[in-house]
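Subject: Sanity check before I submit

Could someone independently write out the structure tokens for this chain? I want to compare against mine line by line before I put it in a report. The sequence has 203 residues.
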Amino acid sequence: MTGSEPRQGSVSRRTGETQVDLTLVVDGQGQAEVATGVGALDHFLTLLARHGLFDLRVAATGDLDIDEHHTVEDVGICLGQALGKALGERRGLRRTAHAVVPMDEALATVAVDLGGRSYCVVKADFTGTGVGGLGTELIWHFFDSIAREARMNIHILLHYGSNTHHEIEAIFKAFGRALDAATTLDPRLGDALPTTKGHIEGG
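---
Independent answer below. Compare away.
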């Protein structure tokens, strides 16, 4: 997609556990309107949008009387699906990128590949068990949901840190910046696919 229209995707998901409406504008300005019922997730998604220069709108309700698991998972699913819709055939994309982001004492690297293959690796020894209602065990689950639905590789490495909030914040900021770079249209590619195979896997 090399036209002048902003690349965007919208998803509505309804299950017995959650209701999610999400719109992602890849060619945005970093504006976010996020309400998931999980305050920490709202905060980190807002940071992702700002650092990736995406416009992101999320309205989600879920079975938070049980726990945050289904809400976090389904927001990740919808974000991945919206990204896939926004990128279409993925023509002209730079496709791969990485970002290294510090947040005070914490440092994280995130590398992504939009080549159509789904895989997620998180190497993170978090200091604590979570921030607010967002447990650290949900971090991998959230990004794995994005990777599966967007058909992309996500590799996350938390190098070090001593504050869980800072550690997660560095990861979300790095993901936003890496995704921004990978979704950039390279004028040298024109309308070509960023692969030697002739097609993007899973397309």
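---
OP: Matches mine. For the report I'm noting this point. The first strand starts at residue 8 and ends at 14.
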